[in-house]
Design goal:
Rossmann fold; seven-stranded mixed β-sheet; 7 helices; 7 strands; globular; binds S-adenosylmethionine
Amino acid sequence: MPHGHHPHSAPPVNGATSLFVRRFLARPGAVAAFLPSSPAFSRAIARHLARAADEYVVELGAGTGSVTRALLAAGVPEERLILVEIDPEMAAYLHRAFPRATVIAGSAFDLPDALPASASGRIGDVVCGVPLALFSLDQQRRLTGMMLDLLPAGRYFLMLTYRPAAPIPGPRLGLTGKRLETVLLNLPPGSVWGYARNRPPTA
Ligand SMILES: C[S@@+](CC[C@H](N)C(=O)[O-])C[C@H]1O[C@@H](n2cnc3c(N)ncnc32)[C@H](O)[C@@H]1O
């Protein structure tokens, strides 16, 4: 018997995933991934947090909160999360799903002005989920510089990518990048990268 369409045997689709896919279809260039990060990939990102107990985590391009959920599960208090998302429907969803987090509905490029004053000097990690690989070198320079300026000197920001190679040209941006982890249980397989400024040469 051919496999027909069985409405009652369809797998349950969770609201976040269907919203993600719908917004991908509406704005493929900005969303840049067909599916949200898997739980396994999201947990891998959260494993590399460097924050001290009281510090905030800024997540750029939080989408429908896959990585956000893993950050919470890793022990980041919801009120220490600052979520930035350019898609208005996704930002509204994040606001409903994480009511105690700070949700900034706008572009990562408009930080740091949009950040709450209470977080100033108290940001321990920045997780970059915006598809920086698709941006111009100048935009990459601006956003990576901004992320590193938010962090204590010498700390890495975290970046997720679905590319097999480095997501941004570290050397051209004056950055040292290292692949921290690759997770095959994601479609497509994902890697977590950390980037910091090149150490100035010691005299
Ligand atoms: C590849 S998705 C990642 C979503 C989520 N972090 C995840 O891992 O499932 C990229 C997200 O970045 C958002 N985005 C794209 N450009 C942005 C920008 N300039 N500022 C803030 N968010 C942006 C998109 O709307 C989308 O939600």
